[in-house]
Amino acid sequence: MLKIKDLSVAVEGKEIIHDINMTIQTGETHVLFGPNGAGKSTLLMAIMGFPKYRVTSGSIHFKDKDITSLSVDERARMGIGMSFQRPPVVRGVKTRDMVAACLKGNGDGDTITKLAEKTDLQDFLERDINYGFSGGEIKRSELMQLLAQRPELTLLDEPESGVDLVNIALIGELMNDLLEKNCPIPERHCMGLIITHTGHILDYVNARTGYVMCDGTIGCMGDPHEMLGTIREKGYNECIKCYLGRIPLHE
Amino acid sequence: MSKTNASRTYKDKAKAAANKAAAYGEDININYYVNPDEKHPYQKDPSQLAAQTKDKMLGAGIILDDPGQRSGTYLQMDGTPVHFSARQEGVEVMALSQAMEKHDWLGDYLWKAVAVDSDKYTANVELSENDGYFIRALAGQKTVYPVQACLYMAQAKVVQNVHNIIIAEEGSELHIITGCATDSIDEPGLHIGVSEFFIKKGAKVTFTMIHNWNPEIAVRPRTTTIVEEGGLFLSNYLLMKPVNSLQMYPTARCIGEKAMVRYNSILVAGKGTNLDVGSRVFLNANETKTEIVSRAITTGGNIIARGYIEGNAPDVKGHLECRGLILGEKGTIYAIPELKGNLAGIDLSHEAAVGKIAEEEVEYLMARGLTRNEATAAIVRGFLRVDIEGLPPMLSAELKKAVEASEKEVM
């Protein structure tokens, strides 16, 4: 279980998210909606533990342990994994090396080859990670690494952005594998928290809880499909007016 | 010109340049060093050399216990060639002095690529007693295994003067691995190596040089390569062990159409190491190409990483990539990439970057579960990994092994 309590996070001295509360039970996948600048990525980065995203108050518990002060790698080793929206290029570090690092000895060259086949990245294993990758290739590469890592909590930052319609089905399939969609919820071990702008990914993942974030707070919580319908119909402003009863700060 | 006259001219020119400081690098007082007074015995079977010596040579990529992995071997200790042999038909490996006796035409190659009066170091090689290696692949001959050459400094405080001539005749293929090492871990010495490469029409030479000096050695290599039509020269230079002062600016001149040159350098400078290293290519014929890639890491030493490409003919193409990584609190990397184009229709470019490891990259790897140290090591390893096209797999593997062996010291 992931439990976030009264969490506020600052970046370079400026508080970006305020008093967030969220609980994801084992086996559940939750979805975050919200306009640009709402603080969605900040929340994911803070859960992952990047030092630039400083927790100013509140706490994050994962598997009943307070992880608020743990480093990124400690959290990764506890079972949190993240798909980056814009991962850096690391020259000289091959995609194969990254997948091998994620496997942590739980697999060999064959395992890596199979993962590459599954993500349609066979020709990318010997390339520098993310170097010259297209938007879709980056997404698949991130998911390939996560499939090797097998995190218990998967954080996905806009997995469908920059992906064409053909590839989106593959991305959806890979996400389902990660999030054990085909298992009944009580038998699942994995949790997911997904940021989406377009909602396309809802056609593929089995998410039952959604949030709308705006101005660093969670405006409402509910059925993600219903939320998406409202957002598509009326836009975020209407959504925020309705749930928060105020004019959004960015207007 | 007769041999004697030519020799006199070189001596005269050398005398005139005996005090000529080099254009780059710290000015070394050659008189501080002595000429080697010890003649080393010839070793018919180099595997019989002392274990410690073989170990030092192995650190520079020289394998003496398994000659099957080499097409030929040349070993020189101080001023004495102690072994030379060729194992493959069509390949000549011998001391330059012997080659001069064997081939009366060889005098035409001496000081043809490198000017004898370039500076006081080239002059000193001409004016002092010297020897060096002569490696030649006959026309159409292709070496399967590399020829290895080791220049070893056994005596303390000596100046080792070396003059090497490498000729790849038309259509031949030659792979050379050169290792330089010292016996002592802390005695001073000066190594001056003149190397002249002649790559004939359609020939291919890969040259991999590994330096394994000690922190008191000064090194002044002087190398020029002439590449004829359709020729290919791939040079890989690896320096990961401490050295006091090293300055070199190997130069290639592409004089025939479609000649191609690639230089890769991997440099690591710890505290007390001063490097001024570059690669320079003149694209003097149509459609010639070059790529210069250098990776420099300082853990406290000073590195000047130079690069120069000059385009003097239509449709030439050159790219220069110079990347430096500063690990630790101190150390300097000064990247100087230079391009000169002398006519329209040429395509020259460069990229240079110097800095510390990007925190974003470290954190990306940490998010996959690597500790900070593991992530940093992976990035440094990646930084040092230069994929070299055209290098035979075995040499590629050996180079990789040499880099890996030195990584721990970098970290």
Low-confidence stretches of chain A: 246-251
* Helix/strand/pairing category of chain A: alpha/beta
Q: What is the ordering of alpha helices and beta strands of chain A?
A: EEEHEEHEEHHEHEHEEEH
Strand composition percent of chain A: 25-35%
N- and C-termini, Cα separation of chain A:
36 Å
Shape of chain A: globular
The pair of chains with the biggest contact is: A-B, 26 and 23 residues
* Biggest sheet overview of chain B: 10 strands, mixed
Supply database-style keywords:
heterodimer; A: 251 residues; alpha/beta; Rossmann fold; six-stranded mixed beta sheet; four-stranded antiparallel beta sheet; 7 helices; 12 strands; 34% helix; 28% strand; globular; B: alpha/beta; ten-stranded mixed beta sheet; 40% strand
Describe the fold and architecture.
- The complex is a heterodimer of chains A (251) and B (411).
- Chain A is an alpha/beta fold.
- Chain A has a single domain (2-244), classed as P-loop containing nucleotide triphosphate hydrolases (Rossmann fold, 3-Layer(aba) Sandwich).
- Chain A is 34% helix and 28% strand.
- Chain A contains seven helices and twelve strands.
- Chain A has helices at residues 40-48, 72-78, 95-103, 109-118, 135-149, 165-178, 224-244; strands at residues 2-11, 14-24, 29-33, 53-62, 65-66, 80-83, 90-94, 128-129, 153-157, 191-195, 209-214, 217-222.
- In chain A, strand 1 and strand 2 form a beta hairpin.
- In chain A, helix 3 packs parallel to helix 5 and helix 4 (109-118) crosses helix 5 (135-149).
- Chain A is globular.
- With 411 residues, chain B is an alpha/beta fold.
- Chain B folds into two domains: 3-358, no CATH class; 359-411, no CATH class.
- Chain B is built from seven helices and 20 strands.
- Chain B has helices at residues 3-16, 51-58, 96-102, 120-127, 359-366, 372-384, 393-410, and strands at residues 72-77, 80-86, 91-95, 133-137, 147-153, 159-168, 173-182, 189-199, 204-212, 217-227, 232-239, 245-248, 251-254, 260-269, 274-283, 289-298, 302-311, 317-326, 332-341, 347-355.
- In chain B, strands 2-1-5-7-9-11-14-16-18-20 form a ten-stranded mixed sheet, covered by helices on one side. In chain B, strands 3, 4, 6, 8, 10, 12, 13, 15, 17 and 19 form a ten-stranded mixed sheet that branches.
- In chain B, helix 1 crosses helix 4 and helix 5 (359-366) packs across helix 6.
- Chain B is globular.
- Chain A binds chain B through residues 48, 50-51, 71-73, 76-77, 81-82, 84, 87-88, 90-94, 97-98, 101-102, 104, 128, 145, 149, and chain B through 323, 358, 360-361, 363-372, 374-375, 378-379, 381-385.
